[in-house]
Design a protein that fits this description.
eight-stranded antiparallel beta sheet; single chain; Vanillyl-alcohol Oxidase, Chain A, domain 3; 3 domains; Uridine Diphospho-n-acetylenolpyruvylglucosamine Reductase, domain 3; alpha+beta
């Protein structure tokens, strides 16, 4: 590593770098999740594609065996820092976050370190536009676009991956390429659905935008969980509503905080249309413990659900989001998978019995309704799961500031994990594979095939692309595409 550091200092003297022993190294490697604390051997923050080229060439010349790419830094398994047991040089894209909105072409061209919330804010403020994506607005767009990006307005507008138009990438040999449907189309196919960090560094990407809904609203309908006998019929009614709701209704069923809740957003264009959706929802769902329906502009729907209701409640506004370090350290575990068919009565009864025993804090199950008929054909991208009705996810988390100390935080987290793992096993027989955007190495437990779960029928083709563009496996971690 001494040779690599000397090369970088000589050839890229203005580059921001951080190595063990430097006063900046702690902050440069800091991450929010106690369970994902890899220790890379260096972090370098380029400001241009040329900087990235220089880093890669120095690394290859110095014999660096592993490069990792960090965008938003939200890999649950720490892959963007090299992963567990890794010894990576990290190319940190945090400085490359410029955003250009083209309102005539309905596109956004952004740097490889742009956060989803920043893109959301700029697209709306500049032109009243939007792009669909995941619920967590603090994630990096370049990472999420390689995984799927399912969330707020997904039934109406699809997923983030299908919005990718073009990428600029720096490959393992240091060359810069443009990948789209016509140029390096095999690479373009592979990065859309293969997870992060397998083929090269995305330095710039262009996404297709849509006009934001003109009269949206957020809704939340809660039912207190008291006993399985009441949970099951309410969940059944929620499922029936979700599967048959208009595509401008974007619901998610959530089990947490002692409630069975259905929440989401309406992509309505007029107040009359919005009122009709609301009336239909109230008619088809049972009387609720708590009912909230809030008309608001598009940006506020994103702020409220992305900051207040999910994983980043620390920021009052989308303009405040930033790369998380250790300021809100927590222990968090996540699991997720796709469900192709409606849930059976047997499943609902099993879930009901387990749900009423759910701890009232630090654990959450969410079941996002999808449109099984939307999106590109299954062979058009490397996304394994198409045509599914649900994306199921669950998490357990404990904030250090609430627990008071690391030991207590870990103990509470392990207790919550036990409940979550049992819940996952109830879902597992109904799933068609895991969601790589919520990376989880435990998917390989119980004799399951990790790569089949995430990549399935696409894995042989993904390996071919990997051997072509990164034959020495320079870009790798435990969930990256293997050569063999």
């Amino acid at each position: 590593m001494v040779g690599f550091k000397a090369l970088v200092n000589d050839r890229l003297p203005s580059l921001e770098t951080s190595f063990p022993g430097d006063p900046t190294f702690g902050d440069a490697t800091a991450t929010w999740n106690y369970l994902a604390q890899p220790q890379p051997v260096g972090v370098l923050a380029p400001r241009s594609a040329e900087d990235v080229q220089g880093i890669i060439r120095c690394a290859r010349e110095a014999g660096v065996a592993q490069l990792a790419i960090r965008s938003g830094g939200h890999s649950f398994e720490g892959g963007s820092l090299g992963g567990k047991g890794g010894r990576a040089v990290v190319i940190d894209m945090v400085e490359m976050k410029d955003i250009t909105i083209d309102s005539d072409r309905l596109t956004a061209t952004i740097g490889g370190g742009t956060l989803f919330g920043d893109l959301t804010r700029e697209a709306w403020n500049q032109a009243g536009l939007m792009v669909p994506g995941g619920y967590c607005v603090a994630v990096g767009v370049a990472g999420q676009v390689q995984c799927g990006g399912y969330g707020h307005y997904g039934r109406t507008f699809g997923n983030l991956t299908d919005r990718l138009v073009q990428v600029e990438m720096v490959l393992a040999d240091g060359t810069v390429v443009i990948a789209d449907e016509h140029t390096h189309s095999d690479l373009f196919w592979a990065i859309r659905g293969s997870g992060t960090g397998s083929f090269g560094v995305i330095t710039r990407l262009t996404l297709r935008l849509s006009k934001a809904p003109a009269a949206p609203a957020n809704f939340s309908i809660k039912y207190r969980m008291t006993e399985a006998a009441t949970f099951a019929p309410i969940f059944t009614a929620m499922q029936g509503y979700c599967l048959n709701a208009p595509l401008k209704v974007n619901p998610m069923v959530v089990i947490w905080r002692g409630n069975l809740e259905i929440l989401g957003c309406l992509a309505s264009e007029t107040p009359a249309e919005r009122d009709a959706f609301i009336a239909d929802m109230r008619e088809k769902l049972p009387p609720a413990t708590e009912y909230v329906m809030e008309p608001m502009d598009y940006l506020e729907t994103m702020r409220q659900q992305g900051l207040e209701d999910t994983s980043a409640p620390f920021y009052p506004d989308l303009s405040d989001i930033r790369r998380e370090r250790r300021e809100h350290l927590r222990r968090m575990k996540i699991k997720a998978g796709f469900v192709p068919e409606p849930f059976t009565e047997e499943f609902i009864d099993a879930l009901a019995a387990h749900a009423v025993a759910q701890p009232v804090d630090c654990v959450r199950v969410q079941i996002l309704a999808l449109d099984p008929n939307s999106g590109l054909p299954v062979d058009a991208t490397a996304v394994k799961n198409r045509g599914c009705r649900w994306l199921m996810g669950m998490s357990s988390w404990v904030m250090l500031e609430d627990a008071g100390d690391i030991t207590t935080m870990v103990k509470i987290g392990e207790d919550r994990d036990a409940w979550m793992h049992t819940a996952y096993e109830i879902f597992y027989p109904y799933t068609s594979g895991g969601y790589i955007g919520d990376d989880d190495l435990e998917e390989a437990d119980h004799g399951r095939d990790l790569f089949d779960s995430y990549y399935g029928q696409h894995l042989p083709r993904l390996r071919d692309v990997k051997r072509k563009y990164d034959p020495d496996n320079v870009f790798h971690h435990k969930l990256s595409i293997p050569l063999d």
